[in-house]
UniProtKB/TrEMBL annotation:
Its main location: cytoplasm. Belongs to the metallo-dependent hydrolases superfamily. HutI family. GO terms for biological process: L-histidine catabolic process to glutamate and formamide; L-histidine catabolic process to glutamate and formate. Zn(2+) binds at H81, H83, H251, D325. Pfam families: Amidohydro_1 (PF01979). Its cofactor is Zn(2+); Fe(3+). 4-imidazolone-5-propanoate binds at R90, Y153, H186, E254, S330. It comes from Caldisalinibacter kiritimatiensis. Binds 1 zinc or iron ion per subunit. This is Imidazolonepropionase. It comes from the Bacteria. Catalyzes the hydrolytic cleavage of the carbon-nitrogen bond in imidazolone-5-propanoate to yield N-formimidoyl-L-glutamate. It is the third step in the universal histidine degradation pathway.
């Protein structure tokens, strides 16, 4: 259901105004309206401006009203890279990593992603739905109104489709909108060990056509990494996906610099993600082609790897998005404030750039910048109301959730409980 709502007296209405990704210096422009108001009708933003001007134009009594005095209002956050539908957990592996084993070592000896694959294959649809819903509830409480979710814990026809169908059902029953990505090439399953090319053929010929035909996903992604899928295998799979009408994403240059970012540019991908080891040339090309650099500092933090070079990317005119990468292995968190803290304290992003990265650039990373990610007339009425007067409190109140209310399609769908 879509609502009619006015939010008035916002100390800061942080509009992040725009209909496409912000690159480089533009990322600092938040277009704030002080003492701002926003009018939403049938779920869509109809008016944005100073409270005084807005109230002189409309009949307040015809709307539900939220008074945001002393509170900042922002666009709903877009978490543009997650793996939130999965079976089982890997808490044991986390302990192994703490004592020094690397993520790739664990993967090589049969743990990691394939561990979750086993549990996800065994899980019923209802179990995945129940757990997925809990994670969406948690994301919503952090102000996330749209999330991207990937398959990739099936690596076979049945389970890849099951994961995508679960996301489809969750999208229908949950306030958070879900954008689906097919990540059938996330790892090499046990049954294809040593037969990586055959596995890519299987994904291209057997699974991908089903996904595309039934519109089970909008994007196709691949884990392009040393000892996982090569540049050549990635090019082959993503090119076929493109032919079937899927948009492209790529897990690129995360642990080893393979040139995944350059491949993303060559193929016209919407985003290249991770990028801890991206080359200077890859950064230059992303800036030229407008491929969004989706950075996942929670993963670098959790894997104790060096952070992606956000400052360098922004200074070289890239569009940077931030996301949680929520998954059961490399980064088990839905926490938006954690990502804000890491991005500002360790990646040299300013609070303004981090806000842009989680709003309009997050939207651009899932090709939705025309309908979400900013407080602009004609966009969805998806908003976050903070318990503080400025967006600057998000990174400043370190790791703590500063979201007081969340509005989705013009309806209040989350409110922080007070003691
Ligand atoms: N790097 C590859 N894939 C995921 C991790 C998935 C997992 O460990 O389960 C990521 O984006 O971090
Ligand atoms: Zn990922």
């Amino acid at each position: 259901m879509k609502g009619n709502l006015i939010i008035k007296n916002a100390s800061e209405l942080v509009t992040c105004s725009g209909f496409k990704a912000k690159q480089g210096k533009e990322m600092s422009e938040l277009n704030i309206i002080y003492d701002g108001a926003v009018v939403i009708e049938d779920g869509i933003i109809k008016e944005v401006g100073k409270t005084e001007d807005i109230l002189s134009k409309i009949e307040e009594s015809e709307y539900k009203v939220i008074d945001a005095t002393d509170k900042a209002v922002l666009p709903g956050f877009v978490d543009s890279h997650t793996h939130f539908v999965f079976g089982g957990y890997r808490a044991e592996e986390f302990s192994w990593r703490l004592r020094g084993d690397s993520y790739m070592e664990i993967m090589k000896r049969g743990g990691g992603i394939v561990n979750t694959v086993e549990a996800t294959r065994k899980a019923t649809k209802n179990e995945l739905l129940r757990e997925g819903k809990k994670r969406l509830d948690s994301m919503l409480s952090f102000g996330v109104t749209t999330v991207e979710g990937k398959s990739g814990y099936g690596l076979d026809f049945e389970t890849e489709i099951k994961q995508l169908e679960v996301m489809n059902e969750l999208d229908k029953i949950h306030h958070v909108d879900i954008v689906k990505t097919f990540l059938g090439a996330h790892a090499i399953p046990k049954e294809y060990k040593g037969k990586e090319d055959e596995f890519i053929d299987y994904m291209i010929n057997e699974v991908m056509p089903e996904v595309a035909e039934n519109e089970l996903a909008e994007f196709c992604d691949i884990f392009c990494e040393k000892n996982v899928f090569s540049i050549e295998q990635s090019r082959r799979l993503l090119s076929e996906a493109k032919k079937l009408g899927l948009k492209l994403k790529i897990h690129a240059d995360e642990i080893v610099q393979l040139g995944g970012a350059e491949l993303a540019c060559e193929l016209g991908a919407i985003s290249a993600d991770h990028l801890l080891r991206v080359s200077d040339n890859g950064v230059k090309k992303m800036a030229e082609t407008g491929v969004v650099a989706t950075l996942l500092p929670g993963t670098a933090f959790s894997l104790k790897e060096s952070y992606a070079r956000a400052r360098y990317m922004i200074d070289n005119n890239c569009a940077v998005a931030l996301a949680t990468d929520l998954n059961p292995g490399s980064c088990f968190t839905e926490s938006i404030p954690l990502i804000f803290a890491l991005a500002t304290l360790y990646m040299e992003m300013t609070p303004e750039e981090a806000v842009t990265a989680f709003t309009i650039n997050g939207a651009a990373a899932i090709d939705r910048a025309d309908e979400i990610g900013s407080i602009d007339v004609s966009k969805k009425g998806d908003l976050v109301i903070l318990e503080y007067p400025s967006y600057k409190y998000i990174p400043y109140h370190i790791g703590v959730n500063t979201v007081e209310k969340v509005v989705k399609n013009g309806r209040l769908v989350y409110e922080k409980k007070r003691n």
